[in-house]
Every structure is written in C-alpha cells, then in structure tokens.
Amino acid sequence: MSLSTSSSNAPTRFLTGITTSGTPHMGNYVGLVRPSVRFSRRSDVQSFYFLADYHSLIKISDPARIQRSTLEIAAAWLACGLDPERVTFYRQSDIPEIPELTWFLTCVTGKGILNRAHAYKASVDKNIAKGEDADADVTAGLFMYPVLMGADILMFNAHKVPVGRDQIQHIEMARDMAQRFNHLYGEHFVLPEAEIDEAVATLPGLDGRKMSKSYDNTIPLFVPRAQLQKLIGGIVTDSRAPGEPKDTEGSALFQIYEAFADTAETASLRQAFADGIGWGDAKQAVFERIDREIAPMRAHYEALLADPAQIEKTLLAGAEKARALSRPFMTDLRHAVGLRNLAAQGAGGVRKAAKVAKPSFKQYRERDGQFYFKLLDARGEVLLQSRGFAAPQDAGRAIGALQKQRETALAELAGQLEPMDETQTLAVLDALQMLADAAE
Ligand code: TRP
User: Is the distance from CB of 214 to CB of 362 less than 8 angstroms?
Assistant: First the structure.
C-alpha cells in the first residue's frame, strides 16, 4: 500500500539534514555533501536538503554558535555546488509545519520505543553507571529527538534518507510512525528507507576513530591552506621510520587519501607505502591532493560567508518552495486527525471523497458458478480476495460485516478469504477505515 517508487515514474525523493551545531568538516563533505550534490543532478531524483537547526537546540545553548553554524553549513552546501534552483534547500525552523507534525507524530509514538533510542539510552546508561538518577541532565528534547527527525522526513514524504549507519535506527522509527499514523488515519505517509552508500567511506578523524564532532577529531572543511597542512600533519601514524614499509590497512592517513584520490592515485600511494615512504612525505602528498579539490570551493565559501544576507535570501526562497508542499499537506493531516472546521460538519467527508479516490469492493460471479468479492485499494490493486460463496447474498453479507465490524469480521471470515500476511492485513484494515471515514 505504500506509495512505492517502482510502480510510477515519479522521481524518488531524497531528503537529509545536517544539525547546525558545529563547523562543517571533511567527514560531512565526503560522507554526505559531496555524494548528495552529485546525486541531486540526476533527473530521476528530487532532493530536499535542510539545516536541522531545531535539532541543534538539543545540544547547544549558545545562540551565537547556532547562528554561526547555520551560516557555515549553508555556505558549505552552496560552495560544494548545490544548486538551490534544482533542489529544495531550506532551514528547518522556517517550516512551522514541522513542529506541528512533530506533535501529531508524538501522539502516535510509543514512549517505550523512544526509551530504546540509542542516544537517549546511552545517556541513561551513563547516568546509571555513575550511580545517578537515570534521567539526570536528560532533556525531553533529547528524548523527543527521533520524533522531530521523523517529522522532518515524513513532512516531505521522502522515500530515501541518506545517512550514516548511526542514524539507521532513527529512520526505522520514522517508518514506524508513518505506519502507525497511516493505520489510524488513512494512507498519508510514504514509508522512508535509510540510504547507506557502501561506496562512500566513513572518514576517519585525526585520531583514527570516525571523524565526528562528538570525538573532537575533525578536520574543518574550509580551513586556510596552511592550517589544513598542519592538521593533516597531526593525523596519527605508527612510529615506522622512512625506508620501512608501511601498512595501508588501518592507516587513517591512507583512508583519507583514498576518499579524495582516483584509483590510479590510490594505487601509487599504496606502492609508496610498500616502498617505505616517510610519514612526512606521505602527509605532504595527502595534503596536496585534498587541497587540490578543496581550494576552488574554499574561495567560493569565503565569498559566501562574506555575504550572509544573500544566504538568508536563498534559504527563505527555499522555505517558500518547501512550504508550498508542507502547507497543503498539513491541512490534509489536520483534517485527517479531526482538527476540522466546525461549520463544515460532515462536509469534510464529502470534500475528502471528492478529492481522493477510495478503496472499493467488487462482487462478481466466476465460471465455476460461485460468487466472489474482492477489496481494491484506491488505485485498483487487490487488497483482499474472497473464496467462493454459494449465493450472492452470502458474499454481500460478508462485505457488510467487513464494513461494519472491520477487525472482528476479518478474523471471523478468515476461512472464507484467501490468506493474508500481517502487512496485507494492515493494508486491508487501513482501507476499511478509509471507507468508514468517507461514509461519515
Ligand atoms: N540526526 C541527523 C544527524 O545528526 C540530522 C538530521 C535531523 C537528519 N533531521 C534529519 C538527517 C532528517 C536526515 C533526515 O546527522
């Protein structure tokens, strides 16, 4: 029942965000920004990229830092070639429908599910290990992080969410929310999937662990040339002397090079490692290679930073584009949950019925002389298929029972229906609910 991408020619919607809590670093660039910018040029893809500034409030209480980070991350996307005409590029806090949807999703999300979220659980485990209260210093914001992220994703009905592995659980939670909401209120949300590109390396940081703000081991993407050289000089290596062969396996320096170099360049550095290149020379080679790619973008980045008003304008234009979708969608969602114009009592159902196609029952007779029925979804796909009934009245009664007693009737009639798995059953229940809503 989900609006699958394969069944239509509509573009696949990709959506991802970066939390505005720091300076953009090489890990962001290699892991997310560079592949996303390339991807956004494809014609079968519709992209949504945003600055997750509401999320940054969970971690940071320094307003100037949030403002600065938002500016820097926006400038980095643009400097790396993102075309705001082609994609929808916006700032989360410019879309008031997102916090509104967050509340709707909050009301369909089990608290127990949120208890299991990695980031929240890690804080709780740490507190317990220290003998403190489990929730000491844990804000409700941290606890609700996955719901806000779910709203980001579901607001634009994204099919694919490019993220790092540490975010997979969040996407699964967003799927759960979508499923639950659809089950209760009809088919509104696409079920999103995490998009993990195996070809895109996780970049190690200065200390060899994953490059991450939280490890404080990052190389900022756009530091001046001299500083970049110094930072690369500080990447951990072993203590082998020049002339001794070096391992590429497990070498952060080598992995960082690989993320920038082509196959031939990588092969020749591998050879140099085997031939005993000194660490100083290796670092110089890595620095030169990275700087060759970054330098033109760095100049662009600096020009952008010097004109924040222009970036502000770009973001506001992006927000307008995003809200052209989120505003009407939110209107539908408000209606779906029952936040409706009171003067239009009952008319809501009519309006909805006129606008969206409904599921339907079809009754027919087969050549075997028996009477059958099936339930079709709004697009005419079969959701449920009956077995043969001796008389048309029997088939009619079964349909009536399904319409009135939905779940109960489905269980009672099981022997007279073709078997269904859990997903199919949920789809049938959704459809029956939609029919009931439309009949109101
Ligand atoms: N949680 C993501 C991170 O820290 C940022 C984020 C917020 C995000 N909302 C999102 C990513 C929606 C993808 C989709 O990296």
Answer: no
CATH superfamily of 222-301: Tyrosyl-Transfer RNA Synthetase (1.10.240.10)
CB 161 less than 6 A from any atom of ligand 1: yes
Split at pLDDT 50, 70, 90, the class of 191 is very high
pTM of the predicted model, to two decimals? Answer: 0.77
Mean of the per-residue pLDDT values of the chain: 92
Residue 164 CA, ligand 1 centroid: distance in Å: 9
Q: What are the domain boundaries of the chain?
A: 12-200+307-337, 222-301, 356-439
> Which position has the token pair 């290699």?
30
pLDDT, greater one: 241 or 165? 241
Q: What is the share, in percent, of the chain residues with pLDDT greater than 70? A: 95
Q: Which amino acid is at 250?
A: G
Atom of ligand 1 nearest to the CA of 19: 5
The confidence score (pLDDT) of residue 164 equals: 85
Class of domain 356-439: alpha beta
Tens-place pLDDT, residues 196-236? 877 776 899 999 999 988 899 999 999 999 999 999 999 99
Q: Is 160 in the pocket of ligand 1 (CB under 6 A)?
A: no
12-200+307-337: CATH topology is Rossmann fold (3.40.50)
**Is 163 near ligand 1, meaning CB less than 6 Å away?**
yes
Centre of ligand 1 from the C-alpha of residue 297, in Å: 24
Q: Please indicate whether residue 16, judged by its CB atom, sits closer than 6 Å to ligand 1.
A: yes
